[in-house]
Amino acid sequence: MQTHNPFTARIIRVNGDLIYIDAGLDSGLKKGETLDVMREENPIDSGGKLVVTHTKLGNAKITEVNHDYSICQVGKHTGTIHTGDIVKRRQ
After folding, report:
1. Which of 1, 46, 49, 60 has the highest CB neighbour number within 10 Å of its CB?
2. Neighbours of 82 (CB within 10 A)
3. Sequence-separated (6 or more) residues with CB below 8 Å from residue 50
4. Domain residue extents for the chain
5. Could you give phi then psi for residue 27, rounded to 5 degrees?
6. Domain 8-89 sits in CATH 3.40.50.720
7. Rounded to an integer, what distance in angstroms lies between the CA atom of residue 84 and that of residue 87?
8. pLDDT of the chain, 91 residues: tens digit per residue
9. Could you tell me if 56 and 38 are in contact, meaning their C-beta atoms sit under 8 angstroms apart?
10. Torsion of CA 23, 26, 29, 31, to 10 degrees
């Protein structure tokens, strides 16, 4: 399911090495799943279509899953993770 189910969620809160994301059981997430933490950068207008590059900051493991949000433990990472960054399912 993971490789066939592309997924992106927004980080809504950062508390030390814990991040809260705006997706949970209703989005098919499971406790123990590892997500990539990314930052969207360099938006480019490509003929009316917005193209955004992504920089990988690290990874985070889901430790608690609720229906509409999840809590993740940040693992190895580079730089500071901010509210508004995203997480993506590993491909």
Report:
1. 60
2. 11
3. 43, 44
4. 8-89
5. -100, 5
6. no
7. 10
8. 344 456 899 999 999 999 999 999 999 999 999 999 999 887 777 787 878 888 999 999 999 999 999 999 999 999 899 999 999 987 6
9. yes
10. 100
The pTM for the full model equals 0.84
- Tokens 């940040």 locate to 74
Q: How many CB atoms lie within 10 A of CB 31?
A: 12
- With tokens 């009316």, the residue in question is 48
CA dihedral 19, 24, 27, 32 (to 10 degrees): 80
